[in-house]
Amino acid sequence: MSAASCLLTEDQFLCSICLDVFTDPVSTPCGHNFCKTCITEHWNINVPYQCPNCKKVFYTRPELQVNTFISEMAAQFRQSAQQKASSSSSEQQVSKPGEVPCDVCTGTKLKALKSCLVCLESYCETHLEPHLTRSGLKRHQLIDPVENLEGRMCLKHDKLLELFCKTDQMCVCMLCTVLDHKTHDVVPLREEYEGKKAELGKTEAEIQQMIQKRRLKIEEIKHSVELSEEDADREIADGVQVFTALKESVERSQAELMDTIKEKQRKTEKQAEGFIKELEQEISELKKRSTEVEQVSRSEDHLHLLQSFTSLNTAPPTKDWTEVSVHPPSYEGTVRRAVSQLEETLSKQMKKLLAEVELKRVQQSAVDVTLDPDTAHPYLILSDDGKQVTCGDVKKNLPKNPERFDTCPCVLAKQSFSSGRFYYEQSFSSGRFYYEVQVKGKTKWDLGVARESINRKGKIPLGPQNGYWTICLRNENEYKAFAYSSVSLSLKSRPEKVGVFVDYEEGLVSFYDVDAAAPIYSFTGCSFTEKLYPYFSPCFNDGGKNSAPLIISPVNQARRSSLLRDIVF
After folding, report:
1. Which H or E run contains 268?
2. 164: closest CA among 155, 173, 153, 156?
């Protein structure tokens, strides 16, 4: 029996109705075997009586008897299969909470590998084998293991949900399409699945894009916080240096005041010591004469007394001390004068210091600026790196594009700036920018910023009303700011390098003498609604008198860090 069973395949011991090993197997007149309960229930439902395998019809219900031989073989095979499953179960994973268990396993439930949409059961590796080997079961649709397979059946018709009603946006079975959804737009479930999967792919891409944007925003916010921390650290360091310098200056003035007062006191003490020394000397002489007079006056020697009388009768020469006195020095106004002098010194140095600190602060917003040849007047000559511009004597034949200045010798930068953004090559989140231009050796020049929509053709009147915020040099030493009306500027020194700073949000455009660390002029309360471009005009060269170039210079980082150290009170 055992040897024979080894020659039989697993399919020979499976009921084709329940797909499990025979239980009380019976044979039909046509020779096919089924579980007694399975074939009985099948014939109770289906009339006429037909073999499920070969479809042979029996006009009278066959009387079925248990086939003891097959029953014994099936029992032996079931025992062998259980032993095999038991030995392999140690190699397979036992179902854990949250995992789909095998519906066939008895006792310890193993982890299901697949679920069958036809059988509505989930199978472990062992019990999945029939679906992988038997031709009839291979046609069943297997999916990754899922729970609640009953939920894939139509509750109304007890049929598999394999279609999708696009009209009602719901899954339906075949009977639904001929009854409740007869005139609706119905497609196979896979077709709708592919469409919805594509939509989900787009949604996922959009979500990932939204996530990326938010991650970038987080990085931007973190970067802003880092910049804020750096600014705070710099401000604290600058503040410590400023107040340390102020403290040292006050302590120095206090020490000088103390020295002045003590010097007066020392002079008074020295004068008093001289008077006392002189008086003590006279006292010593007078005491000596007093002793001599006393001795002579006690003498009984008449001759000696008379001979000494003349020299002893007069007091030794002394100074008239009647008008002599020591007057305490007057300290009236000493503290007031010292404080006044300190205040004047601090005022001068603080103005210089604050200007230095302000310049240092705006230099933190330094950006890289290059000239745009498409905007340059035909007389202008630009360097290859876009950092220098001068005015030549020959008008070049250039395209007459709308961006180009055609009358005034002007040029704009390639870069434009607006609220929170620096366009062209880099992002700039603070809405501030700063650059420096060397003007050394020039007798005329214009510098500043201009809005994008400025008029670039014909004669251009400068001023905020026309979209220009600029300052200029005329006739070697006449500095002006083109506000709504021309403003003459009084400068202590002739700038060789000019810094330009813009705070878009604050509506501020400021100009600085970089080397002197001194403010030149500021446009305040400006209202910016467009992109701003750095603006440059070297002016005409006046026969070579104004041939020096305007040069966009890199901001001197070393100078920033050393400026506070150079301040001496």
Report:
1. helix 189-297
2. 173
Residues contacting 423, CB < 8 A, separation 6+ = 415, 416, 417, 531
CATH of the structural domain 363-562, one choice from 3.30.413.10, 2.60.120.920, 3.90.79.10, 3.40.50.720: 2.60.120.920
Statement: residue 428 has pLDDT above 50: no
For the beta carbon of residue 230, count every other beta carbon within 10 angstroms: 11
Alpha carbon distance 234, 240 (integer Å): 10
Domain regions of the chain by residue span: 1-87, 153-184, 226-331, 363-562
Please choose, from the candidates 388, 367, 371, 363, the residue with its C-alpha nearest in 3D space to the C-alpha of residue 512: 363
Give dist(CA 523, CA 469) in Å, integer: 7
Residue 292 pLDDT level (bands cut at 50, 70, 90): confident
Residues 227-253 have pLDDT tens digits of 889 888 888 887 888 788 788 888 888
Fold exhibited by the domain 1-87: Herpes Virus-1 (3.30.40)
Residues with Cβ < 8 Å from 71, sequence gap 6 or more? 22, 24, 25
Q: 7 is written with which tokens?
A: 């020659």
Spatial distance between the Cα atoms of 379 and 384, rounded to a whole number of angstroms: 16
User: How many residues are present in the chain?
Assistant: 569
Q: Which residues pair with 417 in a beta bridge?
A: 422, 532
Residue appearing with tokens 């086939």:
67
Gap between the Cα atoms of 512 and 489, Å rounded: 12
Number of CB atoms found within 10 A of residue 268's CB = 14
Does the bond joining 48 to the residue before it have cis omega, within 30 degrees of 0?
Answer: yes
The SS3 of residue 562 is helix
pLDDT per residue as tens digits for the range 15-38:
888 877 888 899 998 889 999 888
